Amino acid sequence: MSHRVALTRAVSPAIDRCELTHLARTPIDLARARRQHAVYEQRLAELGCEVVRVPSDDDMADGVFIEDTAIALDEVAIVARPGAASRRRETDAVAAALARYRPLQRLTAPATLDGGDVLAVGRHLFVGVSSRTNQPAVDQLRAIAAPYGYAVVSIAVDGCLHLKSAVTALADATLLVNRAWVDARAFDRFDLVDVDPAEPWSANAVRVGAAIVFPAEFPRTRDRIAARGFAVHTVEADELARAEGAVTCCSIILGVSW
Ligand code: CIR
Q1: Is the pLDDT of residue 158 over 90?
Q2: Residue 256 in contact with residue 101, Cβ under 8 Å?
Q3: pLDDT digit string (tens) for 100-114?
Q4: How close is the Cα of 45 to the center of ligand 1, in Å?
Q5: pLDDT-derived band of residue 2, with 50, 70 and 90 as boundaries?
Q6: Atom 2 of ligand 1: nearest residue by CA position
Q7: CA–CA separation, 127 vs 131, rounded Å?
Q8: Span from the CA of 246 to the centroid of ligand 1 (angstroms)
Q9: Catalytic residue among 18, 49, 162, 250
Q10: Can you give the three-state secondary structure of 63-130, one letter per residue?
Q11: Is 162 annotated as catalytic?
Q12: Which helix (H) or strand (E) holds 52?
């Protein structure tokens, strides 16, 4: 038997002190962010995930963006070393939670990596080299993952925060992409669904089995995904978007057998 576990983390009351790279700071409504996040967790639960909240503390301004702290492959979990120094202490409790399900490996200095830069699809790990993730991290990730049969491919990220701001997987053979933010030639073996040009921030979708969790704010791109036959489950995600977070950022989803 197997099921999926979704690790999540609370929205911190310090979210208004979050890291920002491409967005100007605007007020974040904490109560609204928490309501939207609760609906997101509920949607993951409805899609069959056991939602496990990892302990947090109120000063972890960006803690809700748990994706950045680790990469969970079927065989091993890799604890990241986030690119923003303010986020480094987010990893300990996530590592402790993941240790229940996977053997752990850790990236070490000088590597820096945010999980938002790692697109795992089939036996490929596409790794964005970005303002947060560096080449030593790609090399360390390759050394860890290659023995399990993963091909690790680095991709330059420029113009957006993370690789997964520009491209995410809808299925093993299908990617959702904003070609303005990433060179799509690296993905020529995949079917590509382009975001609607009016919705540049919409390339980030969460895959839960065959279902897709997707922000309600991007109806044009939602329609494009649905037109390819995917079941799309929308959630409002605009409040945490002010903190430069998208839907993949708020969970680490892993398959668990028992
Ligand atoms: C940060 O800049 O680190 C956070 N404010 C947003 C992180 C979003 N994470 C993600 O896209 N994986």
Answers
A1: no
A2: yes
A3: 999 999 999 999 999
A4: 23
A5: confident
A6: 19
A7: 12
A8: 8
A9: 162
A10: CCCHHHHEEECCCCEEECCCCCHHHHHHHHHHHHHHCCCCCEEECCCCCCCCHHHEEEECCEEEEEEC
A11: yes
A12: strand 49-53
